[in-house]
Design a protein that fits this description.
The protein is α+β, with helices and mostly antiparallel strands. The protein has 13 helices and 7 strands. It has 2 domains: 95 residues, Beta Barrel (OB fold (Dihydrolipoamide Acetyltransferase, E2P)); 182 residues, no CATH class. The strands form 2 sheets. A 5-stranded mixed barrel has the order 1-2-3-5-4. A two-stranded antiparallel sheet has the order 6-7.
């Protein structure tokens, strides 16, 4: 019998299949009775599960990152599907097909990598092109860059997500740069490439998506600054001279300021045209991905609106004809 993926689940369905548990919380209800709140996922998405009257003994039987055979029933609650879990049994990883559980980019990773290399190897500035070559020659880094998600939950949270996000940003920059001739093209494209490079070490993505110890303690922005400094030290082997200080200063600033605002985790605010454009393109690609994902993944078909998204601070209107397109996976998402 073929498995039931999360995006196939509907209100009233009986559940009897294996899912990856990515979050586990033992909570108490108003009466003080303990219950388990779970996040169950496969490659198509996630769904919350509640197991009532589950004590500490059940909670100790598995951890986030484990595979669970889940028995229960799907129900619609406040506009969102959830699972009322009756039984859970831990399943050994070797007994499951891992490709069923990690979501992947729908785009071709080799083609995305070819486009990335094309942008970087056509850089006109010899110092920046040599810097790009130092990263591209690092096989371990490139493997991670092609595999890493761009985030754990918020956006591009799937294998290949970081690569897709960066290439999408480069495509956007390529279209926008002719409108702003004062912006340095090579510097902006290199900043796009490097801005989230630290996520290859910040995140873990071999089974469940999460944060490494280094990621928790330092974060992807300082990690990316360190990676840039290390790669720049190899540039003289290709060019015969060190990276110019002005270029390094501007690249460091772009990495440090790409979140845009201090209260969004940016150590600095953008203070150069390239840094400002990097931030705005990053914000646009991130937010548009989140909005289009809400429309595509919403399974509350009777409603013209998606459920409230706390990160976006709003619900998204599906409406008539467009709602039909998005529910079928259309609407220009790909």
């Amino acid at each position: 019998m073929s498995r039931r993926y999360v995006d196939q689940l509907r209100d009233g369905d009986n559940l009897d299949d294996v899912y990856l548990v990515t979050d586990k919380q033992l909570r108490s209800n108003r009466n003080g009775n303990l219950y388990l709140l779970l996040e169950l996922r496969d490659r198509t998405g996630g769904i919350s599960g509640r197991m009532w009257n589950a004590g500490e003994q059940v909670a100790r039987e598995f951890d986030p990152g484990d595979f669970l055979h889940v028995g229960g029933k799907v129900q619609l609650f406040q506009g969102t599907l959830q699972v009322i879990v009756n039984t859970v049994d831990r399943v050994e990883p070797q007994k499951v097909e891992l490709t069923d559980f990690l979501p992947h980019t729908e785009q071709s990773v080799p083609k995305l990598m070819e486009r990335l290399r094309g942008y970087l190897l056509r850089l006109g500035n010899p110092h920046l092109r040599a810097l790009a070559e130092c990263f591209l020659m690092d096989e371990a880094f490139i493997r991670g860059f092609a595999t890493c998600p761009a985030g754990v939950k918020l956006h591009h949270a799937y294998v290949g997500g970081l690569l897709e996000h960066v290439v999408s940003m480069m495509d956007a920059a390529d279209k926008l740069l002719p409108l702003y001739p004062a912006v340095d093209r090579d510097l902006l494209l290199m900043g796009v490439f490097l801005h989230d490079a630290g996520k290859t070490r910040e995140l873990t993505y071999s089974r469940a998506f999460g944060y490494s110890d280094e990621g928790q303690l330092i974060g992807h922005i300082p990690i990316a600054v360190e990676m840039l400094t290390e790669a720049a030290a190899k540039v003289p082997e290709l060019t015969g001279e060190p990276m110019p200080r002005e270029i390094m200063l501007r690249l460091h600033h772009m990495i440090l300021s790409h979140h845009g605002e201090l209260n969004f985790g940016s150590p600095k605010v953008p203070m150069t045209p390239e840094a400002m454009m990097l931030h705005l393109i990053d914000l646009m690609d991130t937010r548009m991905h989140m909005v289009l994902r809400e429309l595509k993944e919403d399974r509350n078909n009777p409603s013209a609106w998606t459920p409230y998204n706390a990160n976006l601070g709003r619900r998204i209107y599906k409406g008539g004809a467009l709602g039909d397109l998005y529910s079928e996976g259309g609407g220009g998402y790909d």
